[in-house]
């Protein structure tokens, strides 16, 4: 059951990625689609680990707004 939830989440993320600003898109994609750790993302993007966490958190907030029924105006 958990695997199904993960696959469904991945589909939602993939579908919504183009709507995210690039600053959030890259860490979200690396984390949720590629399964990379914060440390790996930090290395790939050449940013501090703390920045990775902030960008993923902010990206998730933007995704939530995109996915809300009337999120787009």
Write up this protein:
The chain is mainly α and 73 residues long. The chain contains 4 helices and no strands. Helix 1 packs antiparallel against helix 2 (22-33), helix 2 (22-33) packs across helix 4 and helix 3 packs across helix 4 (49-67). The chain starts with a helix and ends in a 6-residue tail after the last helix. The mean pLDDT is 88.
Short overview:
The protein has 73 residues and is mainly alpha-helical. The protein is built from 4 helices and no strands.
Keywords summarizing the entry:
mainly alpha; 73 residues; 4 helices
List the helices and strands and how they pair.
Layout (H helix, E strand, L loop, with lengths): L1 H15 L5 H12 L4 H8 L3 H19 L6
Helix pairs in contact: 1-2, 2-4, 3-4
Dominant shape: globular
- Helix count, per DSSP? 4
Q: What value does the average pLDDT take?
A: 88
Strand content: under 5%
Provide the structure class: mainly alpha
Portion in helices: over 70%
Question: Ends: how far apart?
Answer: 35 Å
Determine Rg (CA atoms, Å).
13 Å
Profile the largest sheet: none
Q: Would you report the number of β strands? A: 0
The low-confidence runs, each spanning 5 or more residues with pLDDT under 50, are none
H/E element string? HHHH
Give the quaternary arrangement of the chains: single chain
């Amino acid at each position: 059951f958990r695997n199904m939830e993960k696959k469904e989440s991945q589909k939602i993320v993939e579908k919504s990625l183009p709507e995210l600003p690039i600053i959030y898109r890259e860490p979200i994609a690396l984390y949720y689609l590629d399964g990379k750790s914060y440390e790996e993302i930090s290395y790939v993007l050449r940013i501090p680990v703390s920045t990775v966490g902030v960008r993923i958190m902010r990206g998730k907030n933007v995704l939530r707004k995109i996915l809300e029924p009337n999120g787009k105006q």
